[in-house]
Amino acid sequence: MANDREVLREIWDGKLPVCFQLDQEEIMEIQQPDPFYVMVPRLSYFPLVIDKMKRHFLRYISQENADNEMWMDYNGQPLKWHYPIGFLYDLYCGNDPQTPWTLTVHFSKFPGNILLHCPNKDVVEAHYMSTVKEADVLKHRGQIMSAMQKKDHNQLWLGLQNDKFDQFWAINRRLMESHGDNDGFKHIPIRIYAEDGTCTQRLISPKNIDGSRKIIQQLITELYPEKPVKLRTHGITIPLDTPLQWLSEHLSYPDNFLHICVC
């Protein structure tokens, strides 16, 4: 089990300053709305942190749009709510960091061909739990999540939703432990994204054929044999000698996947 609690806590406490601005075409009042500034957890999802922001802008839009599903874009690129916030920032701003991160808010013209609908937080929970179960299948053949009780699943979700580190990790530590397989995961739950958002997901072993621990340099050579690349997660470029097992235990997002950007 990963026992470096300080690293886990530092990752959990990561925040991003965000500036939300209402789309100019949707403003129906003479008075312009002030931007809405907020610090958001990197590990969370936008639908969990935007309630106050939504109320801030509702009085400036037409009543016919007030019940519409809200969505956001960055430089014209709709943001997929089912990706963690920190990953979205790394994907779109990793090579050119900006703070605060300025996003445009919309209440009309929902891009249904790009974004999944998210009418309420129950949809976020369902997506999150489905992804955690997928990660558990890759790591432990699904044995951990299936052995948990419903109250454990609820505690895991509420810990994330309410930003409660101790509540979340009391349950999630079971998913982060190695069980059998010579004290290693069967596979590393990892998703690697190109700059255009294209995702690569393959079965990645934490060990080499000779039983030694696989490091990031070896993963890069395996996936990108013809070009040198660097990989980024949580705003940092990953050192090439970092073992995949350690990375998975310490820098996975709450869905238990490593979300990594090519840079």
TrEMBL record:
Ranges of residues in domain Autophagy protein ATG5 UblB: 187-262
Subcellular location(s) of the protein: Cytoplasm; Preautophagosomal structure membrane
Autophagy protein ATG5 alpha-helical bundle region domain location: 122-177
Membrane topology summary: Peripheral membrane protein
Protein name: Autophagy protein 5
One Gene Ontology CC term in the entry: phagophore assembly site membrane
Alphabetically ordered keywords of this record: Acetylation, Apoptosis, Autophagy, Cytoplasm, Immunity, Isopeptide bond, Membrane, Ubl conjugation
